[in-house]
Design goal:
370 residues, 9 helices
Length: 370
């Protein structure tokens, strides 16, 4: 990632001495991702396929943690790491390379890192993963904290990001909400096929829920993603439904505001982690008190920039990439003035000068010997 512009703090002017040191807390599984790109088609049984590109990087929850950190948010991650070379690489890449706080993370002796192989072709991806469930993490509640209802509690933070699953409740989510963190939640595919909102028990503690269109419609029994967003807004203060190539639609139940922003058309190299980057962009805009439409636009922009690079975590854009895009897009002839105006809020955030587009990103591999 390029870092040759001054550091941008999206919360500049909003911070106060009594605020928590942590902007965003999240927990989950870190994978070692190996990504193959440039495949003309899906691998064919009994044959050998050669990819024109390959990259390796921390994946899983590391995608979102990296995206948050690169946008200038103080990010704390609680995760298990294997004591193999993969785990060591992922730890160093996140802590030393991205400045993510891993003080609540731990290394598990004799546990190998989960691995995902992702193959990108025809605008889609196919993944194969392997791993074993990590032993439960050690307690990460502050010693003697009277507000602790469970030994597995998060630090005090402005926001927390949870991944909801049917029939599963994570005690730390309720604790984070009780400590006044804004909880943002996404959700995965419901393998049970029930698609029961009541089964997402932690949803009651969430400030925002960000499913994709298919998930939203199945959970609300609707046939339109916008109708699904309104139905979800009856259960959560802020419902955001991603619409893929069409962009995103959001309903703020607390104000009655709705917003829809179209996606930016790009040529995707690797879609791995784009959803995580979208959430990170939306969280950033929310904590910075931007308008709902600006938050959607920014989240969509960061996701669009990410799919043009290898990998989930290494492809997450920072402010240098955003500044370079904004400088370039205004010089491209034939731009729709209304579309450009949608991103005019960036003007007050970004430096006057930026490096030319495109920028060289981090090398997506496990590393070279010095």
């Amino acid at each position: 990632m390029s870092t040759d512009i001054p550091a941008i703090d999206p919360l500049d002017g909003l911070r106060a001495p009594q605020d928590p040191d942590c902007d965003v807390f999240l927990t989950g599984t870190v994978f070692l991702d190996i990504i193959f790109t440039g495949l003309d088609s899906a691998p064919v049984r009994g044959t050998e396929s050669w990819a024109r590109g390959m990259g390796s990087s921390p994946g899983g929850v590391a995608n979102m943690a990296t995206a948050l950190a690169r946008l200038g948010l103080h990010t704390s991650l609680a995760a298990a790491f294997g004591d193999d070379h993969y785990g060591e690489y992922c730890w160093d890449a996140l802590e030393q390379g991205e400045g993510i706080d891993l003080s609540l993370s731990h290394t598990v002796r004799g546990w190998h890192s989960p691995v995902t192989v992702s193959m990108a072709y025809e605008g889609e991806r196919t993944m194969v993963s392997h791993g074993h469930e990590a032993p439960p993490p050690p307690a990460f509640a502050p010693p003697g904290d009277p507000a602790t209802a469970s030994p597995r509690c998060p630090p005090r933070a402005r926001a927390a990001i949870a991944s909801l699953a049917p029939g599963r409740s994570e005690p730390w989510v309720a604790t984070a909400a009780r400590r006044r963190a804004l909880v943002f939640a996404d959700v995965g595919w419901d393998e049970t096929g029930r698609w029961d909102l009541d089964g997402l028990t932690d949803l009651e503690h969430c400030q925002a829920f960000l499913p994709n269109a298919e998930e939203a419609m199945r959970y609300t029994r609707t046939d339109c993603p916008r109708a699904a967003a309104h139905a979800l807004a009856e259960r959560v203060p802020l419902a955001v439904v991603t619409l893929g190539a069409e962009g995103a639609y959001a309903v703020d139940a607390t104000t009655g505001t709705t917003a829809e922003v179209p996606a930016i058309a790009v040529e995707a190299l690797d879609p791995t982690g784009a959803g995580d980057v979208f959430v990170a962009g939306f969280v950033t805009g929310t904590l910075a008190n931007w308008s709902l439409a600006d938050r959607l636009a920014f989240a969509g922009l960061t996701a669009a920039l990410s799919v043009q690079e290898f990998g989930g975590s290494l492809s997450a854009p920072g402010w240098a990439e955003i500044a370079a895009w904004w400088q370039r897009i205004r010089t491209v002839s034939g731009q729709d003035p209304a579309a450009l105006q949608r991103y005019a809020f960036l003007q007050d955030l970004l430096p006057a000068a930026a490096r030319p587009w495109p920028l060289r990103r981090a090398v997506p591999t496990i590393g070279f010997r010095p």
